[in-house]
Design a protein that fits this description.
The chain has 131 residues and is α+β, with helices and mostly antiparallel strands. Helix content is 41%, strand content 30%. The protein has 4 helices and 4 strands; from the N terminus they run ααααββββ. The chain has a 4-stranded antiparallel sheet, with helices on one face. The longest helix is centred in the first third of the chain and has 19 residues.
């Protein structure tokens, strides 16, 4: 009986240690550069939605028709908000944690309205992607 308890305790300890160890694949991710962030978002505001979708990680291995639909959705969203007059590419803030980052960009529209948007990023295959 004592051997079963010892074996059980060892298994529980091993599971706990491996669960708390994390994946470790994102901890060494370099901070996203402002130029990388602005380059990705510039694709969106310039109307190059097909290329923007190519930088969205969740679309990478999807069929072409799916990527075309996503590009059309981005185009529809852009038209809803009006033309982008300017983007403050001095990225307001970047929060980074375990291979993920949140970049905050100030967007100014042609109708004089503005907003701060969140551009979620993920680090995979040695580069930053739009999440």
């Amino acid at each position: 009986m004592k051997n079963y308890f010892t074996c059980f305790a060892f298994v529980v300890l091993a599971v706990l240690l491996s669960a708390c160890g994390g994946r470790g694949d994102g901890s060494s991710a370099p901070a996203p550069e402002d130029d990388d962030i602005t380059e990705m978002y510039q694709l969106y505001i310039s109307g190059n939605y097909k290329e923007y979708v190519e930088n969205v990680l969740s679309c990478v291995d999807k069929p072409e028709d799916y990527r075309q639909q996503m590009a059309a959705l981005y185009a529809q969203n852009a038209r809803k908000n009006g033309d982008v007059k300017a983007v403050d590419f001095s990225v307001e803030k970047v929060e980074q944690f375990n291979g993920y980052a949140n970049a905050y960009l100030r967007i100014q529209y042609s109708d004089k309205s503005s907003e701060v948007i969140l551009l979620p990023l993920v680090y995979k295959d040695d580069r930053w992607w739009v999440k």
